[in-house]
Amino acid sequence: MDYAMILEVFTKYGAIAIFVLVFLEYLNLPGFPAGIIMPLAGIMAAGGGISFISVMVITVAAGLLGSLMLYGLGRTGGQFFLEKYMKKFPKQRLRIERYLTWVKEKGGLGLIIAKLIPMIRTLVSIPAGVFRMRMDQYILCSTVGIFLWNLVFVGAGYICGDQVIGWLM
Where exactly are the structural domains of the chain? Predict the structure, then answer.
């Protein structure tokens, strides 16, 4: 997806489109990059199509739902999934294993920090499920990490929104 196409979808379908695209991005699906989706949601808010607070609530809710789905995957078959993923991307194995060990040792704080690291931020939900992190701790820490990540990217779009809208017109 490119900028113009996502902005068109956001404009046409509003909050629903933001929720669906952010949800898919948090599932770590190819073609849904946060670096495009989040700032465009902020740009939409800057243009007055939706409030900034609404965009934040929608993106955090969508991110948490996507993360919870991956957490559930981790609890029900995550070790198998991680092994398949690392076989497919063998160059990533050492890096991922290092992050996973670190997250396991650090617990909630590790999860919050991992939610701020590209690529790891979406996948970390699977090992949290594999490690059977307490659900209340998982939800709280994921929400904090998701909020911080989204605030940076949505906020950047919102702050630069007027300039970008003027440039697109």
Answer: 3-168
Burial status of residue 149 (CB atoms within 10 A of its CB: 0-12, 13-18, 19 or more): buried
Question: Left, alpha or beta for 144 (phi > 0: left; psi -120 to 50: alpha)?
Answer: alpha
CB 111 within 8 A of CB 117: no
Task: Give CA–CA dist 71/20, Å, rounded.
Answer: 18
Q: How far apart are CA 137 and CA 129, in angstroms?
A: 12
User: Is the dihedral angle over the CA atoms 5, 10, 11, 13 positive or is it negative?
Assistant: positive
Do 107 and 133 meet the contact criterion of CB atoms below 8 Å apart? Answer: yes
Q: Give the model confidence (pLDDT) of 54-109 as tens digits.
A: 999 999 999 999 999 999 999 998 888 778 888 888 888 887 788 778 778 888 99
CA–CA gap between residue 71 and residue 126 (Å, rounded) = 5
Query: Can you state the percent helix, strand and coil of the chain, rounding each to 5?
Result: 85, 0, 15
Which pTM does this prediction carry?
A: 0.82
For 67, the token pair is 């993360």
Question: For residue 127, how many other CB atoms are within 10 A of its CB?
Answer: 26
